[in-house]
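input
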Amino acid sequence: MLSAPADMAGPDGDSLALHLLGAPCWQRWRAGRPLGPAVKLGIKDAALLAILALEGAQPRDRVAALLWPGAASVQAASLNLRQRIFRLRQATGHPLVQAGAVLCLLPDGLECDLWATGWEARQTWPEGELLADAALPAAHEPLADWLTQARAHVAQVWQDSLWQAARRAEAVGHHESTVRLCRQWLRHHPCSEEQWRRLVTAHYLAGDLDTAAQAAQEAQQALVEEMGMAPGPETVELIHTVLYARRERQHTAQEPTRPCPVCPGHKTTTPKETGDADWFSGQLQALSPQAMLLARALALMDAHAPLAATVPTAARLLNVSALELAAPWQELEAAGLLQPPPQRGARIAGTALCSHLLAGIPTTLVDHLRGQLA
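output
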């Protein structure tokens, strides 16, 4: 069913909606309600309306030549066109087309789903291929060529309009609209990292960490399947930020009751702060080799390049993809060996632990890793 035309009613309050995306048809509306079922358009009627809707005013002879390339004469094609317009007016009850040497649509009381201004006004982007499943005889090669180009043009305008709408929604903090628009865009173009980041960020800023994490996993899967490669550094950092925030929230929700407050003036310490070797050994022994290697790389970055302690830098240091660090990074967080980042990146939790990790790295390897950071 067609959506109700927006602010396009004629003098009698009626309006005509042309649906040319998908199976072409028309439908009459009054006061926001359809006056009857949608009526299918024949291919030549649909093509005539699509040409005028997309290209504006057109010479009668050009339109007639596109629709009736095999006509015996220009006059015969023009007569066919005149009869076609007359029947359309009778069927729809709308003047529809201004006839003459130049043809154009009469917009009063008319809505067409090819007009981007209507998409943006209603914040609704209709889907479907222009004149879908149109079967043209072999003799209609000029119209077939026009239709191929017009489909590509409509698809590009639709894509650009929806992209810009998502950007505007993001800019003003309309998270729900951002999510809806990004989802619609990604159904057709699932390999856009920027749009995936926009979607994940909107969920994250709306406080829906579970859905943000789910979208982050979808992004990884889509990018790997569609592009055959791991997400870029900026996307990986965002994914880690979301997963870290969700784990922190889950950890906070599962925390036991708070301990009794300590006596005034008494400072408590943690094993990480005091450098308790037994605590370090117990935590580190439970790590996988990959997590241990990552911990040492982060410790080295803390000691020699603290501003570079991010997932992409660690990946470069260890000569692996950033995606491969997701599991070991989560291991370190779960073990309590990372402290929360103030903005981006991460730090080994405590200088004592950092020193403990560096002490286990051979001098030659330290020199090699320093060279990688340089």
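quick obs: The domain at 155-254 is CATH 1.25.40.10 (Serine Threonine Protein Phosphatase 5, Tetratricopeptide repeat).
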